[in-house]
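re: the backbone from monday

yeah here it is again, tokenized this time
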């Protein structure tokens, strides 16, 4: 019941509300445990050893070919001393054309493919102390079968004039859009670390989810 604008629980309502509070606390504790966990089975990356702290995207959006061409440049931090590679997830036909580490061309190591999780790609790192930084750049392009991208022709849009592209990266579709450490349990790529330079005459619309 409500008295003076405040909700007051009677004795019959209290157990139900206590159960709701307990369920919320349990869910919050579960999420916290997931975030703190170092067990993650949905990525092929080495995110517990080396992780990007910043990323810059350069994209040319080709609506005719339904592809995104460009590059991603990461600032990678050592989470272990002496780590010698930065491993990222790829999927959906994403093709890596070149790799640069600290400004120099570097060979790529392509791992074994998995039907669901895709293919890991590793860039070599010069062993450095714990906390040291590297710059890793991948030049790449997506494929029409990229599962994170949906392409609409002008007749499919409300205005019927321009094509439209939208992306959906949950739960682990980001790896078909950009090489990344792509996890499902609260550690998916933190999109706020990215800067985007779009080299095409298009309108960008961002939606928070």
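seq for it, each position gets an aa:
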């Amino acid at each position: 019941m409500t008295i003076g604008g405040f909700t007051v629980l009677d004795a019959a309502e209290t157990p139900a509300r206590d159960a709701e509070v307990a369920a919320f606390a349990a869910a919050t504790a579960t999420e916290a445990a997931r975030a703190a966990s170092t067990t993650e089975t949905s990525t092929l990356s080495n995110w517990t050893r080396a992780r990007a702290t910043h990323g810059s995207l350069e994209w040319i959006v080709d609506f005719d070919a339904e592809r995104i061409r460009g590059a991603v440049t990461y600032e990678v931090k050592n989470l272990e001393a002496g780590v010698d590679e930065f491993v990222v997830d790829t999927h959906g036909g994403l093709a890596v054309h070149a790799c640069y580490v600290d400004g120099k061309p570097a060979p790529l190591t392509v791992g074994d493919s998995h039907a669901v999780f895709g293919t890991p790609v590793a860039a070599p790192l010069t062993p450095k102390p714990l906390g040291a930084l590297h710059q890793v750049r991948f030049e790449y392009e997506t494929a029409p079968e990229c599962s994170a991208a949906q392409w609409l022709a002008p007749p499919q849009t409300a205005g019927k004039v321009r094509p439209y592209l939208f992306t959906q990266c949950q739960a682990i579709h980001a790896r078909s859009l950009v090489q990344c450490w792509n996890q499902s349990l609260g550690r998916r790529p933190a999109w706020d670390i990215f800067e985007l330079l779009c080299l095409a005459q298009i309108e960008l619309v961002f939606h928070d989810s």
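Residues 201-209 have pLDDT under 50 and may be disordered. The first helix runs from residue 14 to 36.
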